[in-house]
Design brief:
With 331 residues, the chain is of the alpha/beta class. It is 48% helix and 15% strand. It has 14 helices and eleven strands. It has a five-stranded parallel β-sheet with strand order 2-5-8-1-9. A two-stranded antiparallel sheet has the order 3-4. Strand 6 and strand 7 form a beta hairpin. Helix 10 packs across helix 11, helix 11 crosses helix 12 and helix 12 packs antiparallel against helix 14. It starts with a helix and ends with a helix.
Length: 331
């Protein structure tokens, strides 16, 4: 009974604390037509303190969505266009010698911001990717012999283009795992595309206004962790991740030869936190199985290794996740 009262109190508190979600959505919708899943995923990443990898063909408003979200939060934003000739120093900063003072001074790179847009991350060589991924993991950067903390909130949103693979450097699987979510952006509906045309040829594009402070985001992150998750939901998350490692135990004998490796414990943690963030966005103080299922594809998509057999049969990681969700018992 006590627990029920606590959940009710928590639910009321979260409804109050999550009111800014509507304000952000209103501002984002001024600029972005449709792409509800993309906007939701960006919010999940922001509230979960996780980084996001967006994949989609050019022109689907990936960059626009990220810049719009950054504008709604009164935070520092920087965009880095990744190219084959980019150096780690161009990203994190470097030491510059001053003849006047006869000493070295630090020039901080664009990574010193709250929001980093790493545009076309797969266009840069491994050294630059590693520098960014280290900043993502440690929330710090070393220039010379001094380590500098990065500002909070710190969120990296990287985009990659699935077409034109010539001259690109695909992210290694182990490094892709650093991204909490991998979101695949799809084409808009016909009605949405007509609206996009009208909006763009009409002129006078609406600009989003800052509606949330950095402090509110940091506080919301703490509250997201307080969202109630029952032990049955925890077991459900563990079952889903274990089904990617040992599909045979979940009656998925046909799926086993298609998976070369499953999700790591990082996948379980990300799935739990993303589910809590999704419940928070839906203004609920507790997690239900539908929350887990809603974020599951984006959390696990890049964490399941496919065998040659899967590629030969044109089976994707999304197909495997769907079959796992259908096989694992819902609490």
């Amino acid at each position: 009974m006590n627990e029920t009262v606590n959940i009710r109190e928590l639910n009321e508190r979260i409804q109050q604390e999550s009111s800014f979600i509507e304000m952000i959505n209103l501002e984002v919708n001024k600029v972005i037509v449709g792409q509800k899943h993309l906007s939701e995923s960006l919010l999940i990443g922001l509230l979960s303190n996780g980084h996001i990898l967006l994949e989609g063909v050019p022109g689907l408003a990936k960059t626009l969505a990220i810049t719009t979200l950054a504008k709604t939060i009164n935070a520092k934003f920087s965009r880095v266009q990744f190219t084959p000739d980019l150096l780690p120093a161009d990203l994190v900063g470097t030491l510059i010698y001053s003849q006047k003072t006869e000493s070295f001074s630090v020039r901080q790179g664009p990574v010193f911001a709250n929001f980093i847009l790493a545009d076309e991350i797969n266009r840069s060589p491994a050294k630059v990717q590693s520098a960014l991924l280290e900043a993502m993991q440690e929330h710090q950067v070393t220039i010379g012999d001094t380590t500098y903390r990065l500002p909070e909130p710190f969120l990296v949103m990287a985009t990659q283009n699935p077409i034109e693979q010539e001259g690109t450097y695909p992210l290694p699987e182990a490094q892709v795992d650093r991204f909490m979510l991998k979101v695949v952006v799809s084409y808009p509906e016909k009605s949405e595309e007509m609206k996009i045309i009208r909006q763009n040829i009409g002129g006078g594009t609406l600009q989003p206004q800052p509606v949330v402070s950095q402090e509110q985001i940091l506080r919301a992150r703490e509250i997201v962790r307080e969202v109630y998750m029952d032990e049955k939901i925890e077991r459900y998350i563990v079952d889903i991740v274990f089904a990617t490692r040992t599909p045979d135990e979940y009656g998925l004998k046909n799926t086993a030869p298609l998976i070369s490796y499953g999700g790591s414990p990082r996948a379980s943690i990300s799935l739990a936190i993303a589910s809590k963030a999704y419940a928070f966005i839906k203004r609920r103080g507790y997690v239900i199985p539908e929350d887990v299922r809603a974020v599951c594809h984006d959390v696990l998509r890049h964490r399941i290794g496919l065998t040659y057999e899967a590629e030969a049969e044109n089976v994707t990681s999304v197909d495997i996740i769907t079959s796992i969700l259908n096989a694992v018992e819902v609490p």
